[in-house]
Amino acid sequence: MTVTQEPAAARAAEAGDKVLSHLHPEGSWDVEAHPVPGRKDEIWRFTPLNRLKELHADAPFGTGGTARTWTAPDGVRVEEVSGEEAAALKGISGLVPNSRFTARILAEVDTALLVDVPADAEIAEPVMIDLTGADAGVNEAGRVVLRFGAHARAVVVLNHTGSAALAQVVEVAVGDGAQVTVVSLQDWADDAVHLSHHQAQVGRDASYKHVAISFGGDLVRMDSNVTYDGPGGEAELLGLYFADAGQHLEHRIFADHTAPRTKSNAIYKGALQGEGAHTVWIGNVLIRKVAEGIETYEENRNLVLTEGCRADSVPNLEIETGEIAGAGHASATARFDDQQLFYLRSRGISEEESRRLVVHGFFADLIRKIGVPALEERLQSTVESELERHLLEIR
């Protein structure tokens, strides 16, 4: 099937603007240009492919397993679109598929959920999109398109719950001067499988915050990518995850600095508990020759609460110009800080309460950075519920 490219993607292809990163293969709209990945492929070597239900390969996509509902403030259009309108939105984020599953979704899924925020709109309340799975036995594919006009201000929350086997592409187009926050919350049931690719293009002098929060699901793998459509754009990539026994939670970010004087800042924090809990964080920043005067930093911290867990953390910087304002990364994986526990216990605080305070402190600053008050209480409550499982194990 032939797919018509959106102008941004077409311009990149015509200019020969190839991604040079070793972690991101050259894109193509042709599904057959992307072989079915195997464990020997660098970008799939951490993922348990046998648990993906062939979503990464050629599993037929069914329908009806995941319901999509929403609450949108006045001034925001949220609608399921199809036909020519849905086709015209393909590549609106500058996306040219670099994996088989993304190419398949864009080739085979002829509808999209569109969230359209007009230029200059200032939307005070978050746009809430609920994606609720009802059957993890049905493989599905879905497209979500978030379009923000110039100088718009808005927050969109994608809330994933229930049982599902979902392959997903989320495209985000941020207009010049816009200030946008996109939150993707994966609070699935224990049997869910979620394979998703988020792609954003940030306009001139625009500000984009992307937040990935993963608690539930048997296996969740999310790619969160950003490019720039002009100088002065800023991207803040935040992530929070808590893996229990047997869960695989994988987050991969790619900040592709395609314009000068742009910024990216990534902070991901995770906790693990239970036998076989596995988290993966792959950070990658590509600074192209044209991207002079950029600033970037990426950080990943993991807190291991019990034996039998594994946290893989791999930050990367690929730099093609020396004319940058700053670039760095940090990664750490550790158990409870004995000094912190000793300090709290020496002041009469029980061991259980000390552990609770340490974990809450570990996540608290990141939760505040999200900047969505409606979510803060929910996230604190979820962290508390996850922590209670750990405390039950050590009692």
Automatic annotation (TrEMBL):
| InterPro entries given in the database record | Fe-S_cluster_assembly_SufBD (IPR055346), SUF_FeS_clus_asmbl_SufBD_core (IPR000825), SUF_FeS_clus_asmbl_SufBD_sf (IPR037284), SUF_FeS_clus_asmbl_SufD (IPR011542)
Lineage runs: Bacteria, Bacillati, Actinomycetota, Actinomycetes, Propionibacteriales
Family classification: Belongs to the iron-sulfur cluster assembly SufBD family.
Listed SUPFAM superfamilies? Stabilizer of iron transporter SufD
In terms of NCBIfam families, this protein maps to: sufD
* Stated name of the protein: Fe-S cluster assembly protein SufD
- Describe the location of the SUF system FeS cluster assembly SufBD core domain by residue ranges: 139-362
